Amino acid sequence: MPSEQGVPSQRALTDRTLVVSGGSRGIGLAIAIGAARHGANVVLLAKTGEPHPKLPGTVHTAVAEVEAAGGKAVAVVGDVRKEDDVARAVSTAVEQFGGVDICINNASAIATDPTEQLSAKKFDLMMDINIRGTFLLTKACLPHLRESPNPHVLTLAPPLNMNPYWLGAHPAYTLSKYGMTLLSLGWAEEFRAEQGGPGIAFNCLWPETYIATSAVANMADGDKALQASRDPQIMADAAVEVLTRPARETTGQCFIDSEVLTSAGVDDLSRYGGGEHPTLDIFVDKAVDETVDKT
Questions:
Q1: Which residues are marked as active site?
Q2: In angstroms, rounded to a whole number, what is the distance separating the alpha carbons of residues 170 and 231?
Q3: Do residues 123 and 172 make contact, with C-beta atoms less than 8 angstroms apart?
């Protein structure tokens, strides 16, 4: 999709290298493809070396899609929870493309079962992928990010919404996602004091509405939910907008995709689908504009 109305239109990420966790499909893949359209190199770290019986795509098909969009890409089959696999993904980025400019913490697990029905296994999975995985990948990228002229870490996590509704809706999942957010905001402050380098930007990005991914399609009312969901391209376009901003001027923020694009001059979000009243996503209380209702 061509960029317009303030969204970067040139190959603004030419020769910049992204390391993306969980990029086989969905939002992570959309961001990788969006960056590739602007000239980026991409290293995709995901466990899906072989096709999943219920989900489309593998890390290898994702690489093919990134390359078809105009970028260069490498697949690393691995688990973001494992320190050795994460180190291998970062080493691959350095060996293949000369460094790391952008870290995308996309890998995430979700289980919204009530507390008494939530298994310890699911609890541990969310904490390990969402929090531990974000920590491991970011930590491994840091030495190389310092060498980049415009280093960014973008984490797919929500604003810290302390509305009691969200605290009580699914406490364990909320804990895991807010943990990702707190890490990002904490890193923004921890590394803000580093004056010698270009300054590393740490930000979060979250969708205003449901996004048409396999996770939504597999919901009980998946067909209906998909009709009220926006295309993952909205997250890709918002990510590219954030990642092309100067790192020193763009850190410690929790962005909502639609707000990023409207602030960049995009007036019409209907091209991303979802109908007249797309469903608001988890952790979003109210519409950013009057065209979105919580349903």
A1: 173
A2: 25
A3: yes
